[in-house]
Design goal:
Layout: E1 4-7, E2 14-19, H1 24-36, E3 43-44, H2 50-60, E4 65-67, H3 72-83, E5 87-92, H4 103-111, E6 115-118, E7 127-131, E8 137-142, H5 147-156, E9 164-169, H6 175-187, E10 193-195, E11 198-201, E12 211-212, H7 217-230, E13 233-238, H8 251-254, E14 260-265, E15 268-273, E16 281-284, H9 292-302, E17 306-309, H10 321-332, E18 344-346, E19 358-359, H11 365-371, E20 380-383, H12 395-399
Parallel strand pairs: 2-13, 3-12, 4-5, 8-9, 16-17, 19-20
Antiparallel strand pairs: 1-20, 5-7, 6-7, 9-11, 10-11, 13-15, 14-15, 17-18
Helix pairs in contact: 1-2, 1-3, 1-6, 2-3, 3-5, 4-5, 5-6, 7-9, 9-11
């Protein structure tokens, strides 16, 4: 059954305080590193989103079969973790997860001493994993593979008998996520060498530490979008800091050209208008792919043509996000197109908007949240609004604060 949420929120000004959710990316890495270090400490400010909860359940379970639903990070991280954990395991997920490729990670782990088989279609979940000691060694991967594959390998590398050397060939995408993994492994006492295109991790022991998760900069992007579209007032976002491990903290710099200024305070950031607006936005999202939807929608709604590149990973996310953006923005009256592979552009061309605008979310949390601020100027419906629970369960409660 499709559940729709009607939105017709108007606001001349916005003055709200938001307690952002914890970072899903940091939470899921912390859970794996905590398990690898046999930590006696509880992780503070752990995310309460679907992707993190399924990983918590799997790590706390005595079962040998795990269904991680639509949680891509959990699928990749658990595959690596279980490959070095003695036992026989099955890991599966939603129908969309069964369409998301995992062959590169499986081949890499098998080359390093794991034994992983496909239960159904070759190259895709579900997987049967025969966990045992990993030998390690040296592998070459294309730099444009999902950073989650690389992070998954990095985190189990210290457990490999010969350690691990990863040589990344060509352009590296989502590099900040690899650096986040490296920084967090450092926090747990692991030495990681990341020089040029080579990552080297020797066999070594983890040190358990108390860990507190930052708030989520990816979630913050939707509030930048809100203020950019409203243009008046201020929004305080609790729990963010300037020296973040998260690559998506770049959102603060990028929204400077879309009318939003960021002030860093002791316990968060204050967003306020800066009266700036670029005439055209061009940006390479190679390092921040999860921000692309936010900026595509914001630019269209503000009438700012754009050309975005570096979107290689968007086609293998929860949905093909490039196709989804083209489809849904057309419903609002914007002719967005893909000029070349892994690019997205809008030249200012308009089309007739749908008489009743119902935004499909494609089981993608970021589609729902990126399009929600459209309602500040245009009445819309959002299909399956509950998909936000994947990363931001309280999003609609927070969004309802606008205009109150």
């Amino acid at each position: 059954m499709t559940i729709n949420k009607q939105l017709n929120t108007t606001a001349q000004s916005v003055k709200i305080r938001i307690n952002l959710p914890a970072s899903k990316s940091i939470s899921n890495r912390a859970l794996i590193l905590d398990a690898l270090s046999y930590s006696p400490y509880d992780i503070e400010n752990l995310s309460d989103c679907d992707d993190t909860n399924v990983l918590v359940d799997a790590l706390d379970s005595n079962n040998t079969t795990f269904d991680i639903g639509a949680a891509g990070t959990s699928m990749r991280f658990l595959t690596a973790f279980l490959s070095k954990t003695v036992g026989e395991w099955i890991i599966t997920g939603s129908e969309r997860m069964k369409q998301r490729p995992i062959k590169l990670l499986v081949e890499a782990l098998n080359y390093l001493g794991a034994r992983i088989e496909y239960v159904e279609k070759e190259g895709f979940p579900p997987l049967r994993i025969f966990g045992s000691a990993l030998t390690g060694g040296e592998i070459h991967l294309k730099g444009n593979v999902s950073s989650q594959y690389i992070s998954a390998l990095m985190m189990v590398a210290p457990c490999m008998q010969n350690g691990l050397k990863i040589v990344l060939d060509g352009k590296i995408i989502s590099k900040p996520y690899i650096q986040m993994t490296m920084q967090m492994m450092n926090d747990y006492g692991i030495e990681v060498d990341f020089i040029d295109n080579t990552i080297e991790i020797k066999s070594q022991s983890f040190t358990p530490v108390p860990y507190t998760v930052e708030s989520d900069w990816s979630a913050a992007s939707y509030w930048y979008e809100v203020l950019s579209l409203v243009g008046n007032g201020g929004i305080f976002l609790k729990g963010l800091n300037k020296n973040s491990y998260q690559g998506d903290s770049k959102v603060a710099d990028l929204f400077e050209q879309l009318g939003v200024m960021t002030s860093y305070l002791e316990d968060g950031v204050l967003l306020s208008p800066n009266d700036k607006s670029t005439t055209k936005m061009e940006y390479d999202f190679t390092n921040e792919p999860d921000l692309a939807q936010t900026f595509a929608v914001t630019c269209c709604m503000k009438g700012i043509p754009f050309k975005f590149s570096g979107l290689e990973s968007l086609k293998i996310k929860e949905t093909d996000r490039i196709a989804a953006l083209i489809n849904e923005l057309s419903k609002i009256g914007y002719v967005v197109y893909e000029p070349n592979d892994s690019q997205l552009a809008w030249d200012g061309e308009r089309c007739e908007a749908a008489s009743k605008i119902c935004i499909a979310t494609y089981d993608d949390h970021r589609m729902a949240m990126a399009f929600a601020p459209v309602s500040l100027t245009t009445p819309i419906e959002i299909e399956n609004p509950h998909v936000v629970s994947k990363s931001y369960p309280g999003f609609w409660e927070d969004f309802d604060k606008i205009g109150k």
